[in-house]
Model the fold of this input.
Amino acid sequence: MDSFSWIVIIGALGFVAFAVVRKRRAETAAVRSPPPWIRLSLLVGLIAATGVVFANLDLAPKLSHMDLVVFSGPQAGHNHVLVDRLADNALRRNGTIENIATQGAAENLELLAKSSDRSHFALVQDGIPFPDKENLELVARLPSPETVFFIGPDANNILRFADLSGLRIGIGPAGSGSALLARELLSAHGFEALGVTLSRHDFSEQVALLRDGGLDLGVFVISAESDLIADAVRGGLQIASFEYLDALPHYIPAARVEWLPAGYYDYLQVLPKSDKKVLRVDTLVLGDRRAPRSDVVSLLALLDQTLHGFIQYNRNTPNNSGLPMAKDLRLFIENDGPSLLDEYAPVLVNFIPPTNIVHLVMAISILFNVMGGWNRYRLWRVDSARVEIENLSASIFGARLTVDELAELKPVRRTFPRERVRRLEKLIADYETLARRCRRYSLSILVPMGRENVYRSHEQLINLRLSALRGLRRRIGDGDGRG
Done:
């Protein structure tokens, strides 16, 4: 039974118990407290019920606010499988990720540009041209880069890019990241002069054409752990390794050169036969800048839980994509994960980012300190004025005369000449002014909650003295002054 059901049951039992007690008290003339054993039983029951409720409460943060779409790629591809894993993890926490299968990176970018109502993201290879950079941002990069393979039946003899002259080269499926990146590589800085013939094929078809002689070389942008590449190499195809590959990242900053060790795909037959210099590019998670912060951070949290080393990889890898990095990614990396507000108050941070909340709290704290300081200044003014008026009263009646004695004082006309009466009237007017000021201050919004009692104490002292002085003034004016 879930926690909500327990709360409903306990609330219903409490309501019934309350109704029974009210009815019993209404039927009896005198209100009597229940016996001690009943009160003890009710207390124990309340503690037990509270314990049951908290024992069944699931305080782990949920993703019920999460409702987004990810354009992943071909259904059998690595990226589509990854997004399926993310969707399963999100579903366990009440979140929703719709995984949309596409033909590849080109379609992903096209669909991302058309998205509107929901939060949309797309997986694409780094290094491909982005047609709409102004409306895209880098949400994250996956810590499992893809490798750019040049594979062919005689690829061991291809040592320089000039050796590609006149070759028939397959560049992968139409609209895929492989085709886009291959065109970017093979159309830059004089490659067009080599007279290569480019064609687009599905990866499995491309491998078959390489084996049958229909193609001389194939470009595959794919994970190095792919079974397709492993089977192709074990089946006799070779991996090209270019001598001057280190110069290529100068022209395509998103690419980097790494080594694929000999025997990587078969250490018994040693396949490949020697170390191979290859290019690697990251897979990027792109957003259209319209997703709310809660969806972006939730997606980042899922990626961090699903992919080992996600935060560290994004922290240490420079952004050479040419796209701005999402500010939520920067904060996510700096915090080593989502903040408490992102986890437990995701809707709030959609309107007020955590950094703004910190500034807001600081501003409120400063405001309260200023209000408290101004309130203390007012209290000092009231107290100072009251002491000043009391000193004036002492100059008229003497310092030893208490308030009670002043209230019982029977005036004699010769001891209260007109000048002294005027001073008494001024004293009463000053107390009345101070009483009004004290009352006005006590009702001010500047008074911290619970500090009204300080003003009430001053008011009480002022009113006691004012009552005694008003009584004295009446006795002077109504009597003959002789007592």
In short: The first helix runs from residue 3 to 27. Residues 479-483 have pLDDT under 50 and may be disordered.
